[in-house]
TrEMBL record, chains A, B, C, D:
<dbReference type="Pfam" id="PF22247">
    <property type="entry name" value="Diox-like_N"/>
</dbReference>
<protein>
    <submittedName>
        <fullName>Catechol 2,3-dioxygenase</fullName>
        <ecNumber>1.13.11.2</ecNumber>
    </submittedName>
</protein>
<dbReference type="Pfam" id="PF00903">
    <property type="entry name" value="Glyoxalase"/>
</dbReference>
<dbReference type="InterPro" id="IPR054560">
    <property type="entry name" value="XylE-like_N"/>
</dbReference>
<feature type="domain" description="VOC">
    <location>
        <begin position="153"/>
        <end position="273"/>
    </location>
</feature>
<keyword id="KW-0058">Aromatic hydrocarbons catabolism</keyword>
<dbReference type="InterPro" id="IPR029068">
    <property type="entry name" value="Glyas_Bleomycin-R_OHBP_Dase"/>
</dbReference>
<dbReference type="InterPro" id="IPR017624">
    <property type="entry name" value="Catechol_2-3_dOase"/>
</dbReference>
<comment type="similarity">
    <text>Belongs to the extradiol ring-cleavage dioxygenase family.</text>
</comment>
<keyword id="KW-0223">Dioxygenase</keyword>
<dbReference type="InterPro" id="IPR037523">
    <property type="entry name" value="VOC_core"/>
</dbReference>
<dbReference type="InterPro" id="IPR051332">
    <property type="entry name" value="Fosfomycin_Res_Enzymes"/>
</dbReference>
<dbReference type="InterPro" id="IPR004360">
    <property type="entry name" value="Glyas_Fos-R_dOase_dom"/>
</dbReference>
<keyword id="KW-0560">Oxidoreductase</keyword>
<keyword id="KW-0479">Metal-binding</keyword>
<keyword id="KW-0677">Repeat</keyword>
<comment type="subunit">
    <text>Homotetramer.</text>
</comment>
Amino acid sequence: MAIKGVLRASMMQVRVLNIEDSVKFYRDILGLEEVCRTEDGRVCFKGYDEFDHHTFTIRLADKPGLDFLAFKVSCPKALDEIEEQTKAFGLDYEVIEANTDQPGYGKRLAVQLPTGHRIDLFAEVEMAENHPDLHNPDIWPGGKQPKGVGATMVDHALLFGPNSAEAVRYMKEVMGLGVAEVARTPDGKADACTWLTGSNRPHDVAVLEFDQPGKIHHLAFKLNSWTEVGRAADILTINNVMIDAGPMRHGITRGYTIYFFDPSGNRCELFAGGYAYYPDMPVRVWDFDQLGKGIFYYDRKLKENYLEVIT
Amino acid sequence: MAIKGVLRASMMQVRVLNIEDSVKFYRDILGLEEVCRTEDGRVCFKGYDEFDHHTFTIRLADKPGLDFLAFKVSCPKALDEIEEQTKAFGLDYEVIEANTDQPGYGKRLAVQLPTGHRIDLFAEVEMAENHPDLHNPDIWPGGKQPKGVGATMVDHALLFGPNSAEAVRYMKEVMGLGVAEVARTPDGKADACTWLTGSNRPHDVAVLEFDQPGKIHHLAFKLNSWTEVGRAADILTINNVMIDAGPMRHGITRGYTIYFFDPSGNRCELFAGGYAYYPDMPVRVWDFDQLGKGIFYYDRKLKENYLEVIT
Amino acid sequence: MAIKGVLRASMMQVRVLNIEDSVKFYRDILGLEEVCRTEDGRVCFKGYDEFDHHTFTIRLADKPGLDFLAFKVSCPKALDEIEEQTKAFGLDYEVIEANTDQPGYGKRLAVQLPTGHRIDLFAEVEMAENHPDLHNPDIWPGGKQPKGVGATMVDHALLFGPNSAEAVRYMKEVMGLGVAEVARTPDGKADACTWLTGSNRPHDVAVLEFDQPGKIHHLAFKLNSWTEVGRAADILTINNVMIDAGPMRHGITRGYTIYFFDPSGNRCELFAGGYAYYPDMPVRVWDFDQLGKGIFYYDRKLKENYLEVIT
Amino acid sequence: MAIKGVLRASMMQVRVLNIEDSVKFYRDILGLEEVCRTEDGRVCFKGYDEFDHHTFTIRLADKPGLDFLAFKVSCPKALDEIEEQTKAFGLDYEVIEANTDQPGYGKRLAVQLPTGHRIDLFAEVEMAENHPDLHNPDIWPGGKQPKGVGATMVDHALLFGPNSAEAVRYMKEVMGLGVAEVARTPDGKADACTWLTGSNRPHDVAVLEFDQPGKIHHLAFKLNSWTEVGRAADILTINNVMIDAGPMRHGITRGYTIYFFDPSGNRCELFAGGYAYYPDMPVRVWDFDQLGKGIFYYDRKLKENYLEVIT
């Protein structure tokens, strides 16, 4: 099989301050489908173009942030190998049995990164009821036009934390991710930020060196085009969602983007385009003083507070 | 590494009836860069978003068609494994030494498919001089706006020939390609057409059962969006290129497309979008009588002669 | 006032074979708002970007077609002048008093064209309840995302009938419309088709010489862009609407277009773009044998039956 | 004629600090055609979709800014009426004879507005050599793909100056422009800014009350779509043009926009879309504290210095 091992960042659980406000936001504005609610009050969603049972869970908490980012693995055997290598690498992990906290999900490894983040890895999950058509398929499941901005699927997250080099080494050596781009530290001697990917996406996850552990800068869903990003800007605006930046383009990944905040203050991104990464591509390197262009390609300077407002 | 083995359909050599007319077409209208000419008069091109030395070669001949479609493999070791497995599978192949017919290319296996097509596989090739930027990269190499329709890279080809089931078996078992979609025969007992992919592209190659060997329906280059497909229609039209179908959408792959003919009668496609394929996706299945919707999603019927005009 | 007299084709009444199927089509798929129903069972609609009470009325009948196309005039005085000139020109007309058949509408002149069509002219109409915002306006009325394909407003109609030169003369001399483009007859001695406009639209109405009176080729609503035309193709397709041609571009007007049929067989168009016409522009002239390119700009040939299937 | 009197803002002369840098900017990046140079060293340009001899002139000066904005009038008789009414209104004006400073132009009235700006009005101008096709027209003149960002034509300018209410009164009463939108002063008792239009454009000119006379905020050229605005952002960026704001949408006009600076510091805009204005539309009114949303629809706040950096 040409793609094997880790396939993609495919699922995440996020903390919110109010469940119903968040449901309105993620379901009615972002257009995710509400799949189910758990006994402990969490709500599970999915994008219209996803096959997995659900891919996005919100949990009531007293501060926002990311509980974990989960990667799907091609098969149970590959997951076993990752477990072996995680042990050998020396990171702590926990095994979460099937169908415990995430309905429909098989066994997960919950790995503790040295940046303070939790990465889950799993190989098995039930197919969602409303999955994309498989027989003489229409472009939208069941012939239904997507709602709101029409987020298609989970795309990636940007993690902020200490010991990022070690986390990146784990992602490369154990998870098998490729490095698409790096941004150097000001002295040029190390990487301040690394963009990693499991297959052709320009990134499934990025990690930035930061003094506080376990923080996220943003979590991202995928759209199909610059035009959909522009339409999302219209829809976010008429719904009074606070937009942080964009619509614009990244120099890094070349993707189109808009950043905005969910009702709990989690920064979200809608991301479209970008090049198709392949492992025969050299790493693209950004000097620290060019990060402005890397992130805000058109403005060519970092927006104030861009690196400070995190959850 | 998450993607390994065969990466993508990355290069092809095509027969044309007139070199200079073809250069004007592929360079000035499709926007490929002319990289070099060989001593025997062939011309080598590449798209602006490709790193490899060249990816598209035209050769003067007395009838149009495809000499071979080449797939890039992740590393020489993977190529060696494919050679072993090709032997075991029982297909004839030839080894083409580095830097013989294709400048800058390493060793290639030229495999003879039972459909009458030649598939080349290679792991090594020099990097093109005008490759995408790697240091503080701009979105276009060297800050230059792409020309013509701005074809970005080789995307796929649709092969017509006999014994397609056996060719598909080789692509799955030896090349490790995944099957994204199939169209059943009228009796529903076999596959009339199969769409296969090495990574997230919805297809790198498709194979249709046909009584004459070694034919191609079309060769495709990649664009970035529906908007670029529309703009391509404008540019093709003002250049009097004969358009065969589109701009439109495929049901199969969900990609946006326009078909047209090069000056020698080779049908070309500009293809954009489509879903991101992952090997955890079930195969999408088309009934034979729904192929019209599969290919001409908006018209929902096959255009006359669509399956007959081939080279 | 820079624009005065006839402003635009702003309203039409169309015959349908089934009211409820038509309501589903025009309201749920095209995205028009159902404004009201009349005592005699007609249903009145409007686009989200229109201020007038309603702009599109359907009436149950035993065959499809257009009852009348109505043009809005800048003021009652201008309407009086048009009445005087219509008398002088010698066309029959009727005065329809305010609030008779069309709720909310002021007095209309119903002019009988020599092509067998009825053109209404009016200056006064009540403002719709759901009109575009006027105070710190959002881009969509009341902050609500348009439904279905999101048709914005009535745009134009293409009339087929005899004595078209005389109808065109009335439109120019009495209605004050400008001629944007003409297509010559095969012998080049007369105009087979004329595109006329009240202001910057490339056409508000077109008239083609035809042997049967009172026919329409299509009625058109406006979209905003090529991208919206493409999205409309997606939405029409998943709703099993029969698409006649497009998405494509016209050479005439340079507009983007898709043609399809309502449930009664009326050909509809969604039209976007096109140049901004001004009366200082020379008339653009098409030879008869170039009409294919004029209408099907990318295919450069008339689609079979294009000029035959009419209502 | 449905549109008569003033047709549109169709021409302007701008001051630049360096002719050759400006030629590179307006010709190679914005894509205007260089039409001719005058004996006194000015350079005349036009957009590919304009019929008039030239529509944009640059003049070497020691500070940037706008010499005049010119409006085309439907016919000499209408120009004579405007001259009469200008006298009656009491504004100073000068008559510039044909073919003096602007090659190919007929007689112009150069009217001195109380805001310190000069508005020219003219009815006659030679047709440009490279005008849009008139016989079986292609979408681009002579079948040539537009260069750079492909600016189509002059669109509008935003003027800053004192006595704006009086300037607006002149534009309404003498020039016959319609008021599409106004922004109120903080106390709500007057208009801080007024957007005026000659026909369906949402604005041909806007006037903002300001203490210094004769200033401009920006001069604008027209693009066709949001997608072209995004592509312009790409092209401006790779050419190191300083982008001031956008790509984004205005609440006012609903148009898509990007602001940037020419090499002399003149703020330019590329503007696309916006609603079609008709004189039967009520004026849209913005409260002063909502101007942020009016101009920066997605951010909903004024960008720092937006109202201060002017020329």
